[in-house]
Design brief:
By secondary structure, this protein is mainly beta. It is about 10% helix and about 55% strand. InterPro entries: AttH-like_dom_sf, Ceramide-binding_SVF1, Svf1-like_C, Svf1-like_N.
Length: about 375
Amino acid sequence: MLKWAQGALANVAGTAEPEYGAEAIVTVHQHSAADPNKPDYTELSSKDLAWAQAKGTNVETQVFYIATEEGPFAMAQVIYSVVVPGVKTTAQFNMKLFDPKKPQDKFWSSVPLTNYTFHNDGTSFYADNVALILSEDGGSYKIKSQADPKAHCNISFTRLSPGFMAGKDGKSTYGTDQTKPWGTMRHLFWPRCKVEGIFVINDTQVKVDGMGLFIHALQDMKPHHAAAKWNFANFQGPTTSAIMMEFTTPPSYGNTKCAVGGLAKDSGIIAGTLDNTAEHVKAENDPEANWPEPKEVKFTWKGKDKEGKDVVGVIEKTWAPRMDRVDVMGEVPDFVKKIASAAAGTRPYIYQYYEPATLKIKVGDQETTEEGVIFSESTFIS
């Protein structure tokens, strides 16, 4: 079958794509290198935070991660997805709460939303019993939900350091004709936020004040075609935050790796980094999911600060028993099940960890360390 016909079938049915090769993806790293100004990152404006509301099959999400002062990890998320363009669009609200002192009591809620819409030039999201509202000054979000009768939240995220995206526009683009790419991957970050608010789980109120990370992500194509594996690191310390999002494409795009991230301190950005690695130093086969579960990891950030000094950040960690292993097919909304079930070889699992960690940062000749907590995910899709 001709490649264009194979591609058309894959687009409609969700089947595996033909092997276009690594030349059919231009990562944000490559876009940045080709730019005359070669920007490692660009600070965000409110306009950048508008929901894309892409028309083709896509998944778009806003996620709010919280390292609470009391010890638990918390998360709130809206997922907006076009499953079949012009036919099926869905939205979902997710909440998670995990207390390392009571690992058996972890809580997860995922509920479909109705009557969803966008306001304020697309920067705020509303649905029945849910609101994600960006402030007029673009510096904070209010997140409110009573979508699940057993799980409410009312929280605020106030940005402490500037938000940023990798390169000029944060985009990695897919397609054999890059003047008209057929897919896009994009991540926007608020790396360091002050969080205030509560979760109410089964009528029990949980204070979730602490430090947070906000991510707005867009996979403007079928998600299992965009990436086969993911690694994610979110470190929050008293003065410093470090984030990394790495994905590896399927063989259809040459098993290409792309890792974006950055380091923030107090009210500033140390560096937005494009030279990042997420290594599974040691892994063991998980017989239930049949994936190599990471046991020892190393995250490395490399870039330059605003003065041109070399910046290197490192976290090395031997994981204790995981926080969770999420069977995506068993827990996510129907739209993901329908997309994933149509793809040969798609078997998504997410391994999650939340533990104390040490971040080492070297700027020029000066090296510092900071103790904090890390939330990390390793995701295997296909």
